Amino acid sequence: xxxxxxxxxxxxxxKRRYPHAIVFFRLGDFYETFDDDAELCSRELDxxxxxxxxxxxxxxxxxxxxxxxxxxxxxxxxxxxxxVALCEQMSDPATTKGIVDRKVVRxxxxxTVIEGNLLDERANNYLACLAPARRAGRAGGGDPWQxxxxxxxxxxxxxxxxxxxxxxxxxAAELARIRPAEVLVPDGADPPPWLDASMHVTRVEPxxxxxxxxxxTVQEHFRVASPEAFGIDxxxxxxxxxxxxxxxxxxxxxxxxxxxxxxxxxxxxxYVGLDAHTMRNLELFTSGRDLRRDGSLLATLDLxxxxxxxxxxRRRLGQPLVDIAAIERRLDAVAYCHESALRxxxxxxxxxxxxxxxxxxxxxxxxxxxxRELVALRRGLELIPRLRDALSDQQTPPxxxxxxxxxxxxxxxxxxxxxxxxxxxxxxxxxxxxCDDVAAAIAQAIDGDPGxxxxxxxxxxxxxxxxxxHLRLITRDVRRFVxxxxxxxxxxxxxxxxxxxxxxxxxxxxxxxKANAALAPEHYERRQSLVNAERYATPQLREYExxxxxxxxxxxxxxxxxxxxxCAQVAAAAAHVLATAAAVAELDVACGLAEAAAxxxxxxxxxDGGDAIEVRDGRHxxxxxxxxxxxxxxxxxxxxxxxxxxxxxTGPNMAGKSTYLRQVAVIxxxxxxxxxxxxxxxxxGVVDRVFTRVGAGDDLTSGQSTFMVEMIETSAILHNATxxxxxxxxxxxxxxxxxxxMAIARAVVEYLHNRPxxxxxxxxxxxxxxxxxxxxxxxxxxxxxxxxxxxxxxIVFLRRIVPGGADRSYGxxxxxxxxxxxxxxxxxxxVLLELETDGREHxxxxxxxxxxxxxxxxxxxxxxxxxxxxxGIDVDAMTPLDAMRVLYELRDRARxxxxxxxxx
Length: 904
Ligand code: ADP
Ligand code: MG
What we know:
The chain is an alpha/beta fold and 904 residues long. The protein is built from 29 helices and 27 strands. The strands form 5 sheets. The chain has a 7-stranded mixed β-sheet with strand order 13-23-24-25-21-26-27, with helices on both faces. Helix 11 (341-352) runs antiparallel to helix 13, helix 12 runs antiparallel to helix 13 and helix 17 crosses helix 19. Adenosine-5'-diphosphate binds next to helix 22.
């Protein structure tokens, strides 16, 4: 140790405390990394690896990063899942004797980033935490993830904090929805098997999950008597998850933890259940195999004008509501904006100028805001009264308003006229509380065009602090002072060549050439002799010099203090400002959805608690956008648990089956998110969950998806769907042999139909035309097909859904369309004909042999007489000849009778 330089010792001390982070060690204008960290940075950041002597005979690997470019490098490391500990100099090296004190001020991890340039402004950045239902390693052992898991997530850039207890399935779906940048799990327990392998997992101290410690952590942080204050049960595994999140933020010295001021309890039952497959299959956030954002529902609907609105819209699309009143409130706001293009244009114009108030407040509270961010916040807050004015400009006659009750009294000062709002927007408008005091505090103290950083100065507005103004006068007028002094001294001494100058060692001096040195007055004190000149100081000069230096320091001090004080004022009002920002985001979402509705011709859906889904002229919002205007063929839908429960959709490849199925699900989800829908009318009985299973061939992302996976997912649907669910099954059973696939598809439909209490509304696309027969047995099954016309032996896709089953697959026609050689097409026709005749015979036989399994769900009972007779045979008492006779008899009965049970 003695052999090491003091800096090396200091570094090792820091690194010991942050072994899991890359330590960025500030040395002057650089952040330096050493040892393994240096090698890693050199590799990952493509920067030069050198070495540095740091002790007797010791050279240490080193990679340095200029401090002004640090954000970009941190961004790269974070994106790769690394953590960076920022170790800063705690005092000014210029004025410090000995080694400068250094401290880690923050550990940046993927889930705790707050730098604007490291974040996607249109998406939240979540840190999530999973708490196992049971402590790992406790007596009894077993899988700690068995049972409900505690789940918490926080976006520390905006202060959002949500927690709840979720089933494993729900937790997996939530993770897929929020896509956290980082997931905390207790060290020692294996992460749950359903945790997506691509997530950045951070293992943390298991003690943090101790329920007593976590309860105390939560109580202390939020200053509440119990987690029950947020509607979270004391015994809920959500509490350990919250505790661990808070501890992690504390450990990483994230000052943003102060922004987190309450917990929202996650109640799964409030939202439509959507699993990861369904979000992907319906292309809510990403589209196609490569999971791009374009072409997704989000990309289609997102015409918001603020980042806050964009984030809110994304959250809403992932969490459609089931509460009709809440959905209607959202639709009201959309309708208000939809009704007038002028109103919409005016609101969008203002919203476009609105900065990201949430994240600005976040950075101010965290203490990392720059002066210009305060100014941006001020401008945003100054827009609020204008937005409210725009909203209060309504055409509803005042009389009707008065009947509806009081609106908009908030914010009306004496002498001001009380704004009244259209009832549809009143609630949102009322929550846009003017934050005049905060805006005024910033406006008074902070210059409208401040320096980029606090060091750059000019942060405080002139006139705000008399002392600061005076100090600035002193420091700014140095040149004039020097000139005046010079002129005065020249006159007094009569030395024309006398000069006043400054250097760092001697400070201010008066310089006289050697020739004139004899003329220097008494009170000049000689300081320095040069070859041709002498330099002097005077008491007046010394006095002035110390004034300037202290003035500079003092001015910087005052600017910092005022800036901090204004930040503290903003922080004190953070909750208030964030509430207003949330209402602005809601307005922005309403305005954006109204704009989409107007542009793309959507209508307001009506919602009810019934069990029917009826859509007139429904369209698929994304496929429609990808086609020429007017090219998309609209289709009707009517599903209802009571009668038309299951729709079986047949039709040739490429006819539009998948598009139709998805369109129905997307319309339902859009409606329950509070958006208008692509249709001419829609009445939606709200659904509790949407399930989709897309057969291997049609699965957008996992083309390689095996039959096993397909069956696991189908099984999950059958176990979890309720009478209020919507189930979309697209070509299931495809991944196996024809007969297996058909048998499974059939059994699934029968189960959905016959299982008491299940009766989920279902759309089932299939190329197994045999399933069309089911409608004859099962009263709530309806057949549909996507119409095609045949013209001169070729098919034309009409894209129209019509009642009845398709009778041919038209696969050969599609092959012909695709340009297969004529001879091949002709031969295929012949083979098809042979197969179809054969197949009809085979199918009969297959049904006969498989009847015992299928009979579990079949509407017609099997031939129980045959079974009874078989069971009654006394084999031991028979002669071989008797046995032969009975066998022949049974065979004949089976041939004549069993086939009928399944005949059409
Ligand atoms: P299938 O599932 O029957 O094989 P898809 O639903 O994948 O067919 O549709 C194939 C293509 O047909 C789509 O990519 C789209 O371009 C077009 N299409 C589907 N439905 C419509 C429609 N209603 N109007 C116009 N074009 C449609
Ligand atoms: Mg398809």
